[in-house]
Amino acid sequence: MTIAEAALATGLTTHTLRYYEQIGLIDPVPRRSGQRVYGDIEMRFIQFVLKLRATGMPMRDIQAYVRLRREGDTPDSIRQRGDLLVRHAAHLREQRASLDETIVRIDEKIALYGSMYADATPSPAVASPATASAPSNPRKHA
Amino acid sequence: MTIAEAALATGLTTHTLRYYEQIGLIDPVPRRSGQRVYGDIEMRFIQFVLKLRATGMPMRDIQAYVRLRREGDTPDSIRQRGDLLVRHAAHLREQRASLDETIVRIDEKIALYGSMYADATPSPAVASPATASAPSNPRKHA
DNA sequence: GTACGACTTCGAGTGCGCTCGAAGTCAACA
DNA sequence: TGTTGACTTCGAGCGCACTCGAAGTCGTAC
Prior knowledge:
By secondary structure, the first copy, chain A, is mainly alpha-helical. Chain A is about 60% helix and about 5% strand. Chain A is flat and about 65 Å long.
């Protein structure tokens, strides 16, 4: 896989991919005659890193994690990596709790609006809270 | 409630509170001899706005929502507010799904690390979700 | 009557996470 | 041989959401 293909697969740009490598967010990718070759291992790790990032783990912590990985599987490295992940997991559980609460509140408000005017219920394309799969604006794009 | 008290209650600064008002993230707070007086209604709405913001709703959308509220309860305003909330709710459900997935992955990795060395289980100080402070907190303030 | 806290406007600065472009080099493929 | 695509370093710029400070005014309370 070339960098262009990796970019396509991850939804990042080649710029960003190189940038991530440069700042140590991912390990240096192996080269063949100077060009980066992305294999399964690289891709899987990048996906993992993107998950961390998408869930709000600060770059610094991800960098720390990657640094520890490079240190190898010493007990110390493993313990510290574990700690980082445990801390992030705790953070995610908090996030989820807050998210659940917010969803409840919003659903209440939606119901309220729906009941205010029979006329004025949210537009059908988007009306049911169960219809949770619509990614974004239902009126653009058909 | 003065602005200082409101700041304390929300965890924001007085600066930020005025800033939010200025950019239309919250309605103008009623004044008594020029000074803002925060009542229950204001506080509750601010908390709601903070929930929206904490769950990643862009300022612009919150501003739009507040603008619509100010328009009053016309069918159009209500429908549009409903739509905004429904869209955000959908977004939150996606977020939650991704969050759940990430939690599972991280827990797997934690278990893996735990099993690698009996020695190297995550340190107790940090092991319990109850003891959870986020890794390098993105929002300052406490 | 003065201290305190709030008010206003203004503008600059911060930190994060990209994002882009320029300029020049190099290797593989048709 | 020439067109690609990738490589490097460098530095500027951007959008978001604050964050801070300065300067000067005003009202209330001890």
